[in-house]
Amino acid sequence: MWMVLSSLKTPAESMQVPPVWIPHTPSLDAYEKVSGVVNVGRSMWNSLVIASITTAGILITSMMAGYAFAKYHFPAKSLLFSLLIATMFLPPIVTLIPLYRLVGSTGLNASLAGIIVPNLANAFGIFLMRQFIAGVPDDLIDAARMDGASELLILFKIVAPSVAPAIAALALFAFVYHWNSYLWPLTVLQGNAEAYPIVISLSRLLSYNRGAVNTGLVMAGATLAVLPPLILFVLLQRFFVDSIVGSAVKG
Length: 251
Prior knowledge:
By secondary structure, this protein is mainly alpha-helical. Helix content is about 70%, strand content about 0%.
């Protein structure tokens, strides 16, 4: 609420001490200035492409790998799953340089593909899906196999609806995380401003006023940037709450 109200203040009200909560003369000038400093439409589109494709990839790979770990028996399954969990403890900064060199060797640097491709699988997503899919009755899956259903049909027509709250929660987590991602896109894009997501583009607002931060301008940009994740949360809120309740009951 403070962010939205601050975006409607005049520069004088933004700097006033003590702070003014409700602007006396609400103004949309800050939003007009944001459009003049940052290509909001292009940056929002870049962020939407990155977050949407990455989220879709994470959902597919997490469901397939989680299904395999939960319902299949194969050599070294426990070891592989333990190694997968161990990768969750690695700070992103540790893998930044090796991953950047790998992306550079494939020619995907300075492009949106370089941001998206390395993030199409996620250890946390696989872990989450495995935990929920393990709760799906084996009898239900065996009955589908006896009826001649393929494994993909079982996964997407039987298992997926059973763990829909977990899928919605993972979709929300993944979308918000990659929408707000800053360091990895900044590293990969190498100054390619046309491909900047909204989070990087908005950093220009901090230096817009010759070193003096225009609070209203920054808050207006932040308000625009937070709208898509907020809308997604509202749409998935019921599933998100169901996943929390389901995990609590399961625990």
